[in-house]
Specification:
It is a single chain. The protein is of the alpha+beta class. It has a single domain (10-304), classed as DD-peptidase/beta-lactamase superfamily (Beta-lactamase, 3-Layer(aba) Sandwich). It is built from 13 helices and seven strands. Strands 2-1-7-6-5 form a five-stranded antiparallel sheet. A hairpin with a 3-residue loop joins strand 6 and strand 7 (275-280). The longest helix has 15 residues, at 119-133. The chain is globular and about 55 Å long. The N and C termini lie close together (6 Å). 56% of the residues are buried. The structure holds 6-diazenyl-5-OXO-L-norleucine (DON). Residues 68-69, 100-101, 119, 163, 170, 198, 261-263, 288 line the site of 6-diazenyl-5-OXO-L-norleucine.
Length: 309
Amino acid sequence: MSSAVAPAFQPVLDQIAADIAARPGRGRPADYIPALAEADTSRFGMAVAEPDGTVYGVGDWRHPFSAQSITKAFTLALTLALEGEALWEHVGREPSGNPFNSLVQLEYENGIPRNPFINAGALVVTDRLHALTGDASGTLRAFLRAESGRQELDFDLAVAASEAAHGDRNAALAHFMASYGNIRTPVPELLEQYFRQCSLETSCADLALAGGFLARHGIRADGSSLLTRSQAKQVNAVMLTCGTYDAAGDFAYRVGLPGKSGVGGGIVAVVPGRCTLCVWSPGLDERGNSVAGVAALDRFTTLTGLSVF
Ligand code: DON
């Protein structure tokens, strides 16, 4: 962090919303999941949650959207909390430099995905969480409900079914890794868990609050510990290097924060020790990251000076 003075977040958010409204070009919604293809790209919301749970927002910050790959940051944290370092025998932590649904590295690397945030890596993490808890997606939903305080937070089973009906790529990844012994859950059951996880309907407020533990060095909203300080640092580090896929370098350059995007158009970002942000706008760039979302986070770190650099 470069600013010692606490900025007033509400005027900053109002300024960002005005800047984004004046900006042309919003990208296109994800169309490979038909249930997401009709999303309204004029939507925009942003929330900032402070470590004490105070939350500020602007625009559509309470409007639920499909969390999609943002959930991968939470399943990583939950699995790391339960399994510790042994997790890294099954998934790496290096940027892939490839699209989020790419198959190409998996064969060269013997069925061990590069990192937990590409789809292959997320399938491995969900498999491990499912084996540890008996219900990976239910465990994740319970965690998000507890941390956001919104008990109605739930799956959108129509989105999960839509993705399942077009899920050949994820099925291929899962079967391929199973052939290396790196997946233990039967593949159809694992895919159902993964699609449910991705379909969670969350608002910017929900995710900014639920990601609070990453700004609080591993401490949950109720004061209990999910992760050690060192593990919270590790999750933030993997978000910084891998959270936006083959755009992670550009995201670090423009925003300078750990971040995790999803094809629903959301992005969660963390200023360790200071706040957790979530921005949403469904229009994506060609690498699957929200165009207005990245622009808004870029404005946030520029206006506030809050960054890890
Ligand atoms: O598995 C998929 O393709 C989607 N459920 C999630 C992908 C995603 O969100 C990638 N993020 N930018």
